[in-house]
User: Fold this.
Amino acid sequence: MKLPGSQEQAQEEVLFFRRWLAHPLKVGALLPSSPFLARLVAKHTRIGDDDVVVELGAGTGAVTKALLNAGLPKDRLFVVEIDADMCTYLRKWYPQAQVIHGDAGMLHDILPSKWRGKVSTVISGIPMITLPDDLQARLIRSWLGELKPGGRMLQYTYSLVSPIPQKKFGLSVKRAGMTFLNVPPASVFKYEKIETAA
Assistant:
């Protein structure tokens, strides 16, 4: 796998900053996620033989790289990014991942039909805390609809508290970890559906 070096890393940071200037609420950070945060996300991602992972709001691919390095098969990683420039970048550097230019709130429509409802982990780098309630609800319902039984959502965020109102969606939440070696420091929250007795 060809990985960005120092020159390419500089290009990545310039692209990320340009996209932040154009859409600060959509991008949500001045710099790409650090390798420390990316590895923390990968650590809590289910990567089994039958697992399919969806990464939303991938930016320039820090988490994508960590997932592939952790052994996630390339045909089981679907990377969804709404920004066309970032999609082009992701396809150049991570051609082995299934990069989809699309809306994270339309997951059912953009995932290949054979994987619908069979996702083990949905990973979100979308800045949920900045979104209006109706958009946030549309996104979360879309993601939950594609999880297989026992699946989970991971949200990485710069917020100290859960950015997703878990009770509203019938979810349990746990802080999976935090890294101060990210700029700014970031947390990973893990959400799972609360099973109700029949």
User: Anything to note?
Assistant: The longest strand covers residues 147-157. The CA atoms of residues 16 and 31 lie 6 Å apart. The two ends are 47 Å apart (CA to CA). The helical segments are 6-22, 24-27, 35-43, 62-69, 84-93, 107-110, 133-144.
